[in-house]
Amino acid sequence: MDIVPLIERIGESPTAALFGLITGIVFGFAAQRSRFCLRAATVEFARRTMSNSVAIWLLTFSTALVWVQGAALLGLLRTEDARMMAVTGSWSGAIIGGLIFGVGMVLARGCSGRLLVLASTGNLRSVMSGMLMAIVAQMSLHGYLADFRTYLASLWMTKGGTNVNLLTLLGLPEWFGFAMGLTIAVLALYLARRSNLGAKRLIFGSGVGFAVALGWVLTFQLSQAAFDPVTVTSATFTGPSANTLMFFLTPNPVLEFDVGLIPGVVIGAFSASHLAGEFKFQGYEGEAVMRRSMTGAVLMGFGGMLAGGCAIGAGVTGGSIFVATAWLALLCMWIGAMATDYLIDQPKGGGVAQPAE
């Protein structure tokens, strides 16, 4: 992949933002059409229904594994160069932050990525929750909550100044990740067939996972061609939401992948909803719903920054390169979400959860 002519034409930072924009458009379009939602998947799992949402989530996760690990085997990506892998990880942050994020995800009726997609389709509740989440994320990164986040993260850190590769930790061969992705994909297709899930949703569900791989490969290739250091990253939404917010609020902002990613998701999701005739303005249904949603947004903003990523950033993006703390954070997100559903939502009627609207 020769991207040098593009870099020479528009510059390194605009190229990074362009790659973020492309990744975001693919992600947003596919996520809107597939109704990808970790919150709904965890609730289905907790209520033992194992239907559409679980199938879509597994298909997305497996697709990301197959594409990312396949790219690594072909030399198109070095996972050890990824930002998530190259910095010290936090076991305590993954546990505490993952649990907090899982609770917030259920209260807000969608994870950070899902809220961004819904906001792009006219859901004003998600607009408010997403803005609040971004503000709290920024406070957790550089503001009043930063010291508390740092304290919790420092309780139990990875050793050696880098994160831990789960495959290396378990002594597994390089091809295991690719094979694992194929195995999970078979399970996802079985669940999809059992719940009569349509082919279009399956295709778009896999498109979400492909977007994650696309981001990894594009930023890695840019890092190899650029003169200045470039962060190797992919789709994640807690930190980028805060970065994008500050891009429009501070003087002399710098273009980067994150700043292109968020507008890209908005463009992709809006386009998908408009083409499908599903764009519709929606507001809060009452004070209680508003209070619950805003509480969930606050928890996700802090929990996502503490955990090192959101349901997409840690759960799919970090998981696809086998960052050990990302897998731990994902597990804790599932636990926190299922516990919250059991304690708060199930006594009020139970039933099959639907993605946030």
Notes on the structure:
This protein is 69% helix and 0% strand. It has 357 residues and is an all-alpha fold. Helix 4 packs parallel to helix 16 (313-320) and helix 9 packs across helix 15 (287-307). The model is unreliable at 349-356 (pLDDT under 50).
Outline the secondary-structure elements:
Blueprint: H1 4-10, H2 12-34, H3 38-46, H4 52-73, H5 83-86, H6 91-107, H7 112-119, H8 124-142, H9 146-153, H10 166-169, H11 176-194, H12 199-225, H13 238-247, H14 257-275, H15 287-307, H16 313-320, H17 324-345
Helix pairs in contact: 1-2, 2-12, 2-14, 3-4, 3-17, 4-11, 4-12, 4-16, 6-15, 6-17, 7-8, 7-14, 8-9, 8-13, 8-15, 9-15, 13-14, 16-17
Features:
globular; disordered C terminus; mainly alpha; single chain
Briefly characterize the structure:
By secondary structure, the protein is mainly α.
The pLDDT mean sits at: 93
The count of helical stretches stands at 17
Order of helices and strands: HHHHHHHHHHHHHHHHH
Pick out the low-confidence regions: 349-356
Please estimate the helix content: 55-70%
* Topology, number of strands: 0
Cα separation of the termini = 39 Å
The geometry reads as: globular
Judged by helices, strands and strand pairing, the structural class is: mainly alpha
Percent range for β-strand residues: under 5%
Largest sheet: none
